[in-house]
């Protein structure tokens, strides 16, 4: 058990048989009435974000999440197969479990699998990945408007807003949190 007074961003907790990670919290001491903790929590089972208020000093369960190194092997229909890099055990996750992450997954990529008491909650991608541009409008010489962007489709199917100088075949570094262009990858 852990007191809500000890909340930290990134802490994983259990509340009413669900597993949450603390995204944000604020200790509030009103002039009248008891102190409380206002928090923003992300449900690790379904990805929903909820706001929840706890009384100061209230206890919640502490969830110990396992982070195991895995390798993405291949896709077969709506199932995506991963392998434990230590034990070589293989298992599959569904398209439903990997909605956002599929925009960044490439075969043979190493990632971390999040699990709680044997239940797989999802995957943890690296902060950024390098993806090859497969489709974009050609750059036009002399078109140098500052801040101008165009759409580029990368090898995973994700559409990214990129500067005008990006061409098909270029490799981009893309942020896995919001899918935005960071830079051209170094060759």
UniProtKB/TrEMBL annotation:
Under PROSITE patterns, the record lists: EFP (PS01275)
The organism's place on the tree of life at top rank: Bacteria
Q: In which pathway does it act?
A: Protein biosynthesis; polypeptide chain elongation
Q: Which InterPro entries match?
A: Elong-fact-P_C, NA-bd_OB-fold, Rib_uL2_dom2, Transl_elong_fac_P/YeiP, Transl_elong_KOW-like, Transl_elong_P/YeiP_cen, Transl_elong_P/YeiP_CS, Transl_elongation_fac_P
Signal sequence, start to end: none
Q: Which UniProt keywords apply?
A: Cytoplasm, Elongation factor, Protein biosynthesis
Elongation factor P C-terminal domain location, by residue?
129-184
Q: What name is this protein filed under?
A: Elongation factor P
Give the species.
Answer: Paenibacillus marchantiophytorum
Q: Which gene encodes it?
A: efp
């Amino acid at each position: 058990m852990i007191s809500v007074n000890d909340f930290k961003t990134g802490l994983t907790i259990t509340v009413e048989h669900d597993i949450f990670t603390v995204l944000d919290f604020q200790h509030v001491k009103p002039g009248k009435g008891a102190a409380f903790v206002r928090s923003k929590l992300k449900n690790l089972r379904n990805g929903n974000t909820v706001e929840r208020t706890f009384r100061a000093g209230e206890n919640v369960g502490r969830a110990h999440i396992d982070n195991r190194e895995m390798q993405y092997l291949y896709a077969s229909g709506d199932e995506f197969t991963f392998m434990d890099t230590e034990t070589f055990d293989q298992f599959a996750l569904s398209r439903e479990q990997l909605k956002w992450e599929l925009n960044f997954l490439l075969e043979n990529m190493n990632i971390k699998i999040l699990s709680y008491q044997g239940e797989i909650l999802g995957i943890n991608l690296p902060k950024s990945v390098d993806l090859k541009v497969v489709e974009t409008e050609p750059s036009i010489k002399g078109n140098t408007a500052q801040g101008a962007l165009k759409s580029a489709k990368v090898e995973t199917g994700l559409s990214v807003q990129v500067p005008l100088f990006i061409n098909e075949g270029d490799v981009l570094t893309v942020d896995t949190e919001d899918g935005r262009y960071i830079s051209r990858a170094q060759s």
